[in-house]
Amino acid sequence: GPLSCLNEARYGIVFGTLGAARDCLETAIDYSVNRVQFDRPIAGFQLTQKKLADMTLELGKGMLLALHLGRLKDQHVIRSEQVSVGKLNNAREALAIARECRNILGGNGITLEYPVIRHMNNLESVFTYEGTNEMHTLVVGEALTGIPAYR
């Protein structure tokens, strides 16, 4: 019973983290297009474009993972370790995206004028609750090897 409740909560996190990451990314894209530095938008700099492209790729991969898990759940064949994979990956990547977006916004990234720092702080807690990053890593490790490392 309690584990099934945790799995439902973790499953929700698989999707919820991506929503926060998407909002951060959209904010960073808009900000970078409109923020002028050295007489041009910072979106025109190679490093900014690389950051935006990399974050878009990670967000897309997280969405594909979430979609795949959703299909498994609809078929009633999803396993708890698969939910752990989704929670582990998407919480980790969403937090990394939020942090990178905060960097793109510079000093504005820590103000409440933009949603990025709020999402980042929320993602820090999501990274820990419903099973820490380390516990989900061990669950995945046991699923791969058959050997529980936490006993």
In short:
This protein has 151 residues and is an all-alpha fold. It has helices spanning 2-34, 46-74, 80-104, 116-128, 133-145; strands at residues 36-37, 40-41.
Tell me about this structure.
The protein has 151 residues and is an all-alpha fold. It is built from five helices and two strands; from the N terminus they run αββαααα. A hairpin with a 2-residue loop joins β1 and β2 (40-41). α1 runs parallel beside α3 and α3 crosses α5 (133-145). The longest helix is centred in the N-terminal third of the chain and has 33 residues, at 2-34. It is elongated and about 55 Å long.
Outline type: elongated
Elements, N to C (H/E): HEEHHHH
- Secondary-structure class: mainly alpha
Strands, count: 2
Tell me the strand order in the biggest sheet. 1-2
Radius of gyration: 17 Å
**Terminal Cα span:** 22 Å
- The percent range for strand residues is under 5%
The average pLDDT value, as a whole number, equals 92
In percent, how helical is the residue content? over 70%
What features would you highlight for this structure?
single chain, 151 residues, mainly alpha, two-stranded antiparallel sheet, 5 helices, 3% strand
